Target: ABC transporter permease
Amino acid sequence: MSRERTFNMLRTAVSMIAAMLVAFIIILFVSEQPVESIKIFLVQPFSSRRYLGNIVETAIPLIFSGLSMAVLFQAGLFNLGGEGVFFMSGIAGSLVAIWFQLPFFIFPFVCIGVGAVTGILVMLVPGVLKTKYGANEMVTSLMMNNIAYGIGCYILNNIMRDPSVSSLVSYKYRKAALLPTIISGTRVHLGLIIAILCVVIIYIFLYKTKGGYEVRATGTNIRFAKYSGIRVTKVIILVHVIAGAVAGCGGIVECLGLHKRFEWTSLPGYGFDGAMIAMLANNNPFGVVGAALFVGYLRVGADLVNRFADVPTEMIAILQSLIILLISAEKFLHKYKQAWIEKDVNIGEVKNEGVF
Model:
């Protein structure tokens, strides 16, 4: 592992610790029993199987979202379309889960396949606009989120809505379409295994294949990639296809794993969370799993401290924002990074002098 990569990992850890310290300061100011509140926040998520299951189930959609964003970031693209992809893939997969009738052993996977294809189609729009017209992918993806949300709400309200329920929800899914629970006493479902499989596949693609090398080379220096003969246009399209498929799987997996009908009436927020997860993981697929579990732990802790103490759950939004600010700030610990890398260079020069 290079010293630069090691430094980036340490920098991320420092960012998380700093954010946690700020959380403790907030608790000290707002809580009448700060010590007890901090104890609940830190320890209680690990106090029972149910709470541990809550951490894992919270992390599952974050893994899909973070993995999707990590692929895009590896290519140097800042596409926030995962938000709309989650919503539309949930809608498309739900249509299948409501109206189709298939054997239980293939039904969920057909729904997930439909969600993945929907994710690809939604994500391809900013990808094609980027390659063909040079449109900024961040702007076009944000616009696509609104378009996807509008289309999805129309389908939900006019095609899928259950008139026997007062709230805006769909008809119930067929039981054979639901993802089974894999850990008793929790709501952790088969989506966890699907998410881990996606992580392994994306890792192999990025670090063990020619296509993955082209993606990383394009993200490191797009001009160098062009001069090296890499077809950058193809890479951008490929990355959008992969990211769309992963986020699309995440959208419908969340619906089939934790819900019995489609219940989102607004964008679920996972697309924006994915950017934070990818940053925490330094765009490493396996790091995404750890980052998602960490954020899941923070959210469960914030929920518990809100229920059993007097600290508002809005604290988690402050934590997440601080983490993103510190990680994305290039100057944060910059002078230590320079010294760290220069030390590595000096050690290398000494070794070379010893050889010759």
